[in-house]
Predict the structure.
Amino acid sequence: MELAQARKARVIARPGGRILADALVAQGIDHVFSVPGESFLDTLDGLYAVRQKLKLVTCRFEAGAVNMAEAYGKLTGRPAAAFVTRGPGACHGSIGAHIAMQDSTPMLLFVGQIPFEETDRESFQEIDYRRMFAPIAKWVTQIDEAKRIPEIVAHAVDVATSGRPGPVVIALSEEMQKHMAEVPDLGRVPVSKPHPDPAAIDQLMTMLARARRPLAVLGGSSWSPTGRAAIRDFLLGNHVPVATGFRRQALYDGSLPNFAGDLGVGADPALIAKAREADLVLAIGTRLGEPVTQGYTLFDMAGQHGAGGVPMVHVYPDGAEIGRVFRPALGIVSDLDAFARAVAAREKLRAPWAGWTDELRALREAQRAVRPYAGTLNLAQAMRDLEGLLAPDAILTTDAGNFAGWPTRFLNFSEDQRYIGPTNGAMGYSVPAAVGAKIVFPDRMVVAFVGDGGFLMTGQEIATAFHHGVAPIVLVFNNEMYGTVRMYQERAYPGRVSGTALTNPDFAKFIEAFGGYGEVVTETAAFAPAFRRAMESGQPAVIELRMNPEQISTRATIADLRAGGTAKPKRRPAVKRATAAAGRAGKPKKR
Ligand SMILES: Cc1ncc(C[n+]2csc(CCOP(=O)(O)OP(=O)(O)O)c2C)c(N)n1
Ligand SMILES: [Mg+2]
C-alpha cells in the first residue's frame, strides 16, 4: 500500500529535462560526461536536481567526453551517458560512438536537437542523427514527446547492454525538454542472460579431448571479475595456451604458464605462425575481426570444412557474430560469464598438449626478454620497471600508435588490472579514458600510454582531471612523429618522409602550466624514480619519454624498414636529413 502510494506520488507533472534526469537515475546511470550546449539547457537543469545521485563530469572536448563514457562502459560493463550538443558537438563526439561500436561497449550518447518545428529546413546546427549515426550505433532514436522519455531510455539501456553491447544515440528535441508530462519512472527489470546449451558444452569438451594443439583466443568486452576467474580456472586447469585479442590482454594474467601473448596489431610473428598450427581454436568472447585474425588470414574461412582447415569453437553473446566470416565447427551463443562458469565446472582433461603449451609460453617469455636497443632510453626495460611499480588493481589506458607495442609486449598484466584501448585504432582515446577512469575509480592507480601525436589530440582533457580533483599519470612516448604511419611509409616508400614529422612542445612544461607534475626522461635508469615522484606528487602528471626516433617499433628500426621496403621509388639524398625527425628528440633536456 505504501509502495503504491509512493509510486503514485511520483507521477506528478515534470518537465522533460527533469523526467530525463530521473529516468537516468532510475536506470542506474551514475555518471554523465558532457560538454554543454544550449540545446539541452532544460536537461542540464534536470541533472542539477539529481546531482546527489548522478555525477556530471564537465569536459573540454566532446571527443574527450564520449571517450570517457566509453571507458566507463569498458571498465564497469554498464553504460554511462555522454551529452553533447547538436551539429558540431555530435560530430566531435561521434568518434566515441565508433569506438563503442567496434569495441562492443555499452554507452548512451545524448545529442541536443533543434526545435522540432524547424526540422528539415537545414536549421542552425541541424543534422538528422538517424542517418548520421546509422552505421556507428546499435540504435539511433529521437525523443519528441516528454511522456515517452522513461520508455525510450529504458529500452536504450536494454539495447546497449544486451547481446553484443554497443552505443545507443538519442537525440532530444529541444522544446520537448521543457514540455510537462505526467509519467512514472521505469526501473531496470531483471532479465536472465543466455546460458550455454549443456549439449554444446559436452561437444566442446569432446573436441578438446581429441585435440593435440588447442589454442584459446580470449576477447570481448562483457567479462566480470568472476567470469575472468572462471575462464582462468578452465584454461589453466586444462593447460590450454591462451592468446588474447587486440587490446584485450588484461583479460588474462600474463604471469600464468599458459599465457602465450596477444594476437593484435603488431603481434609476435612466431605466435602468429604457431596459431596457424593449432588443431582446435577456442575463440571465446572475441569477434573474429581484422586485427585478431591478422587481416582475415589466420584461419581457413570455411572452418574445418575446407581441407586442412582449423576446427573452431566460437563462443559469443550474439549469434549474429558467429560464422560471420569464419564458419566454426561449433558456435555457442552465451553470456561470457555463464559460459566460463559452465566450462570451469567440467572435469579437467589430461591435457596431452602440455608440451605444445610450453612451446607457446616460451614464445611469450622470449618476447618479454629485454634486448639492447640503440639509444639511452631502453623502453623495454622501462616497461619492466613499470610493472613492478603498478598497483595490483591499476587501470591502464592506451591510445593508438606504435608506442603501444612497448607496454603490450613487455608488461604482464595481473587479473585485477585493466588495460583498455580502442580496437578501432582511434588516436586521442587514452588521456580522456584515464581521466574518466580516475574520476570513477579515484582510489585506483590510473596510467595512460600515449604517443606525442595522440597526446596533442585530446591531452587537454587533463584539465578535466584538475577540475574534478583526480590525478592520473600520463606517459607520453615522444618520437617527434606520427610513428605508425611513418613505419608504413618507410616500408612502402623508403626514405620519402611525407607528412609524418612533428614539432612538439615541452610536455613537462605543458602539464606544469596546468599546475601538475612533469618530467622528461631520457635515460633508462631515470624512468622508475621519475614514475615514483609522479605518484608521490599526488598531482596529475606527465612523464615524457624521449625516445630514439630511429627505433620505430619494438621490432624494427627505420634502417630495417628501408632495407626491406616493398615499393622502391628512386631514393633521394635529401631523405637522410629527414630521418633525424627534426632532431629535437635527441637533445637531452635539462630538468
Ligand atoms: C583519430 C586518428 N587519426 C589518424 C589516425 C592514423 N594514425 C594511426 S597511428 C598514427 C600515428 C600515431 O602517432 P603517435 O601518437 O605519435 O604514436 P606513434 O605511432 O608515433 O608511437 C596515425 C596518424 C588514427 N588511427 N586515428
Ligand atoms: Mg609519435
Notes: The chain is about 35% helix and 15% strand. Residues 400-403, 425-428, 451-454, 477, 479, 481-485 surround thiamine diphosphate (ligand 1) (CB under 6 Å). The radius of gyration is 25 Å.
